[in-house]
Specification:
By secondary structure, the chain is mainly α. It has helices at 2-17, 23-35, 46-55, 59-64, 80-92, 96-122, 124-136, 139-144, 150-170, 173-190, 198-208, 213-239, 257-271, 285-296, 310-318, 349-352, 356-367, 378-399, 412-431, 440-456, 460-463, 465-484, 491-517, 639-648, 661-671, 690-698, 716-724, 745-748, and strands at 657-658, 676-677, 704-707, 727-728, 750-753. Strands 2-1-3-5-4 form a 5-stranded mixed β-sheet, sandwiched between helices. α25 (661-671) links the parallel β1 (657-658) and β2. α7 (124-136) packs across α19 and α20 (440-456) runs parallel beside α23.
């Protein structure tokens, strides 16, 4: 008997170590979606790419995650992900793909972790389906193909989940500490967003461990203290360092990491009340609806107080669409309006919600018959963990005042886990004719197909009627046939069940491929036929579905002769932190060029050159470059300006100063030279004063200033002083004349020189 038990144990161990051949194609699918063509993205999210370029130059810049090589201001996030990106760039060389690679690998790693986490308890087929659902959740590859943080964040939280599950299985306190410490590491990736999973960790440990309440409280308290210590470790070091010995903490108003974490990157995300210097910029719902629509069809003057044109107002009203249960869906950054059905609204549903009805039916099946006081099976305990992850995060996104579409990747793991576990559980109930529970499978298939038809309906002009009608018809037919054949057990029924799962994953798979098919956007990643716009709306709101970058948005100095100005999108104006792009803020959700330049919707590089640098992936582009320069700040630098500044530099630390990071980032990426973004990412950070600027000029640190407006967020006095105490450089000396449409400094900006004795 002992010998037989030993053989069984060895066979089980062998099976666990054996490679699952069904997992191989799933991982390959994930690898393709996350990695294919990332080498065409030259700049990625230029704000973060510029930081990596700077961090490569010194340990000082590396530790603080400095945006610029001069160590003037940091990016607006903690450094851990950017440390990893910098190491990748050090190993493979500084390229767009080398800073994207860690996130792409993290996306693949998340697929594998879902398989491991679900398989052990719910079975191998549940693990396979969960992994496949994770790989095909559209927002997952869309984010993983960029150098934004969220893919790495989710992977880290899944590692923490694996540690927690191991802690419960082995009853070892060390794994509990490791799990919570890993959440602390995740905090140093994206601050309070990492804490979204804490309800799941606490609930699961309390329910799943068989120890006394005294030990549970003691262990969780100790683990929480460790988590908090790890979380604030970098912040305490930075905040305790003298301000003159480190960069300014970007996007904070008090030069504090802790203020950034719990304010700007914390509670303000929930309230939407992101304000600067005490003035609130919270928008009423109607204004947000108009703003979101105008983001995709912008042709107004881009100063901070500009109003929408009549065409934009018409566009705003014509593009409204009702969500289930009512409510307009054109919220800020196309994230809909707060409410219980927000995740089913346009702009969000096609990123994450394809399988939500099936998940709801799965939850009902998995918890059917569970008593509040227990006892609970292992499956029920782990189902409770995923539910405690899913619900709080879903509630947050249903009520939050401000977030971007790609944050929804936080919902992908629990949705994928329930899709995998639920598919197996509902199939088992269906095959066993388990009363009312046997109807959950056909019911889940039918409602999920119906939602998918609803999600796709705004995209008829882009994808055609056939796939929409096909999913709807097949979903209804398969659900009805399964309902009719409930009493029959044969291979045909098995094939019908498998076919239903294929139908439910077909359109999410297509949506997940859209960043490859149509081009992605590294600054505001999203999936869909308009994925290159980064706005996640239907094709009618995008200028060209095959155009990469910000809907054809051009940075300062780059205008396109092939696209209309009212299809140009614009980056943050540097006004108010109220509705930002990754790494910063714009004016109440409206994306504008830096510092209020009036470019008629176009953005200009310093020097105001209009070099016809249409996005290379645009169908109308004839660019010779094979690289896609997405991320908003994506045109070639003005070489004439660069040559002028380099030639006339007399030892100054900074090549030039400008109002915000939009103008500075491409020059940092291309040259590695220090360029000062005086007001941080958006131009609204209160970093510089007139007296401080005078001291810098007297020390010979900076003498050239590219200004495209009056400045925002407390910069007005500085900009006014610069203009009053400088000489303007004639545009003929630095402005490019390569374009047939040349715009002068009065329209796009001017270059100034200051020398103080």
């Amino acid at each position: 008997m002992k010998h037989m038990n030993s053989e069984v144990k060895e066979e089980r161990t062998s099976n666990e170590k054996r490679i699952d051949l069904f997992l191989v194609p799933i991982v390959l699918i994930g690898a393709f979606l996350n990695l294919f063509k990332i080498w065409t993205d030259e700049y990625a999210n230029a704000y973060y790419t510029a930081a990596v370029k700077s961090m490569l130059q010194s340990f000082h810049n590396f530790f603080y995650a400095s945006f610029d090589p001069g160590g003037y201001v940091t990016i607006d996030k903690p450094p851990v992900v950017f440390w990893i990106q910098t190491i990748s760039a050090k190993i493979f060389g500084f390229h767009g793909w080398s800073v994207i690679l860690p996130q792409a690998l993290a996306g693949i790693g998340s697929v594998l972790l879902l398989y491991v986490l679900v398989k052990r308890t719910f079975g191998v087929w549940a693990g396979r389906f969960a992994a496949l659902a994770m790989a095909l959740t559209p927002i997952v590859p869309a984010v993983s193909r960029t150098n934004n943080i969220d893919s790495m964040l989710v992977f880290t939280l899944l590692v923490a989940t694996w540690m927690l599950f191991r802690a419960v299985r082995t009853a070892k306190f060390g794994w509990v500490l490791a799990a919570f410490a890993m959440i602390g590491v995740a905090f140093n990736m994206k601050m309070l967003q990492a804490y979204m999973v804490l309800p799941a960790f606490y609930v699961f440990y309390v329910v799943a461990t068989k120890i006394t309440w005294k030990k549970k409280i003691s262990f969780l308290t100790t683990a929480t203290v460790l988590m908090l210590a790890v979380s604030v470790s970098w912040a305490v070091v930075v905040d305790s360092t003298s301000a003159d010995k480190r960069p300014y903490m970007g996007s904070s108003q008090t030069n504090s990491v802790l203020e950034l974490a719990f304010g700007y990157n914390g509670i303000n995300r929930l309230t939407g009340n992101t304000s600067v210097t005490g003035s609130s910029h919270k928008q009423p719902a109607q204004t947000q609806q108009q703003t979101a629509s105008s983001e995709t069809k912008q042709n107004s003057n881009s100063s901070a107080d500009s109003s929408q044109s009549s065409n934009q107002r018409k566009s705003s009203s014509s593009q409204k669409m009702q969500a289930p249960g009512g409510g307009n869906q054109n919220g800020m950054f196309n994230t809909g309006n707060p409410g219980p059905f927000r995740l089913f609204q346009k702009g969000l549903s096609d990123q994450i919600s394809w399988l939500l009805p099936f998940v709801i039916f799965s939850i009902v099946g998995l918890f059917a018959g569970v008593k509040f006081k227990g006892p609970y099976t292992t499956k029920q305990k782990e189902s409770l963990f995923w539910l405690a992850w899913l619900l709080p995060v879903a509630i947050f996104f249903s009520i939050a005042g401000f977030f971007h579409q790609y944050y929804l990747i936080m919902l992908a793991p629990p949705i994928a886990a329930f899709a995998g576990a639920g598919a197996v559980a509902l199939w088992s109930m269906y095959k066993q004719h388990n009363g009312w529970k046997s109807w959950l499978l056909p019911g889940g298939i039918l409602t999920t197909a119906a939602l998918q038809v609803y999600i796709m309906s705004p995209y008829v002009s882009s994808i055609g009627v056939a796939p929409i009608a096909g999913v709807g018809a097949l979903g209804v037919i398969l659900a009805l046939v399964l309902a009719v054949r409930k009493q029959r057990k044969n291979s045909l029924t098995n094939y019908l069940g498998a076919a239903a799962m294929v139908v439910l994953l077909a359109m999410p798979a297509y949506w997940a491929m859209t960043p490859i098919i149509y081009g992605g956007n590294s600054m505001l990643p999203s999936a869909g036929p308009d994925s290159s716009s980064g706005m996640g709306g239907p094709p009618s709101t995008a200028t060209n579905s095959k155009q990469s970058g910000f809907n054809g948005m051009q940075p300062p100095g780059s205008s396109s002769g092939n696209s209309s100005s009212n299809n140009q999108m614009q980056p943050p104006s540097g006004s108010s932190n109220g509705g930002q792009m990754p790494g910063g803020s714009s004016n109440n959700g409206q994306m504008q060029p830096p510092s209020g330049s009036s470019n008629s919707g176009e953005m200009q590089m310093p020097g105001g050159s209009s070099n016809n640098s249409q996005m290379p992936n645009s169908s109308s582009s004839k660019s010779s470059s094979s690289k896609r320069k997405s991320g908003g700040m994506n045109a070639e630098v003005n070489k004439k300006l660069l040559n002028y500044l380099t030639k006339n530099n007399t030892g100054e630390k900074y090549l030039f100063a400008t109002t915000d990071s939009t103008s500075a980032a491409p020059y940092i990426i291309k040259t590695g030279e220090p360029v000062m973004a005086m007001g941080g990412f958006s131009g609204s950070d209160p970093i510089l004063t007139v007296s401080k600027l005078k001291a810098m000029i007297k020390k010979g640190e900076v003498k050239y200033f590219y200004l495209s407006g009056m400045g925002k967020g407390g910069q007005s006095d500085v900009i006014t002083w610069i203009k009053e105490n400088s000489k303007e450089i004639p545009s003929s000396k630095w402005q490019s004349t390569s374009s047939s449409v040349q715009q002068g400094p009065s329209e796009n900006g001017a270059l100034y020189e200051i020398t103080l004795k």
